[in-house]
Specification:
Blueprint: E1 2-8, H1 10-28, E2 33-39, H2 43-53, E3 58-65, E4 78-81, E5 91-99, H3 103-113, E6 119-127, E7 140-144, E8 150-151, E9 167-172
Parallel strand pairs: 2-3, 2-5, 5-6, 6-7
Antiparallel strand pairs: 1-9, 3-4, 8-9
Helix pairs in contact: 1-2
This protein binds inosinic acid (IMP) and magnesium ion (MG).
């Protein structure tokens, strides 16, 4: 049986989303702003963030696979669902749920660079720096978390637990 332990409660998440939205609003309010969410984990965070932002933007999603259904990344990245909106000349903010090894973001940054965007920055709700393999600079960060498996607020373990309002650590007993 899995045991869940709250790491960051929903009130703290809401405060954090408000703080990130304030920073991003100042930086993007008069820009050709495109937000790209990495599916599936970022969708809850992104939904809250765009409503806290209150500035015009367009958004799209990309799905890249690195995890399969296990807890360990395979290290091999594949685009499962590509972007459908113009990226050239636009100011892009990538929305990620959690940066772990950094392999997914490193791949995505390389992929986007070929499409000549005006700029690309990263907004991540969570950072798990202890397992980093590729250096990634996070421009807007919510929380740094320990080397534990995290679920809730969009994040899953084997497609489960995305619906939880709090960010939790999952322990297997
Ligand atoms: P990276 O390429 O290793 O940085 O992997 C990033 C992706 O792995 C994230 O977008 C998540 O989808 C997934 N991931 C990494 N750590 C966790 C975790 O603790 N819980 C849930 N998903 C995770
Ligand atoms: Mg993800």
């Amino acid at each position: 049986m899995e045991k869940l332990e709250i790491l960051i409660n929903k009130e703290k998440i809401a405060d954090c989303v408000g703080r990130l939205a304030e920073q991003i609003r100042e930086d993007y309010r008069s820009k050709d702003f495109l937000m790209i969410g990495i599916l599936k984990g970022s969708f809850v965070f992104m939904a809250d963030l765009i409503r806290a932002l209150q500035i015009p933007l367009e958004l799209d999603f990309i799905q890249i696979s690195s995890y399969g259904s296990a807890k360990k990344s395979s290290g091999k990245i594949e685009i499962v669902q590509g972007l459908k909106i113009r990226t050239e000349g636009r100011h892009i903010v990538i929305i990620e749920d959690i940066v772990d090894t950094g392999i997914s973001l490193d791949f995505l940054l390389g992929y986007l660079a070929k499409q000549n965007p005006a700029s690309v920055r990263i907004c991540a709700l969570l950072d798990k720096p202890s397992r980093r393999k590729m250096p990634v600079s996070i421009d807007y960060l919510g929380f740094t978390v320990p080397d534990k498996f995290i679920v809730g607020y969009g994040l899953d373990y084997d497609e489960q637990f995305r619906f939880l309002s709090d960010i939790c650590i999952i322990n297997e007993n």
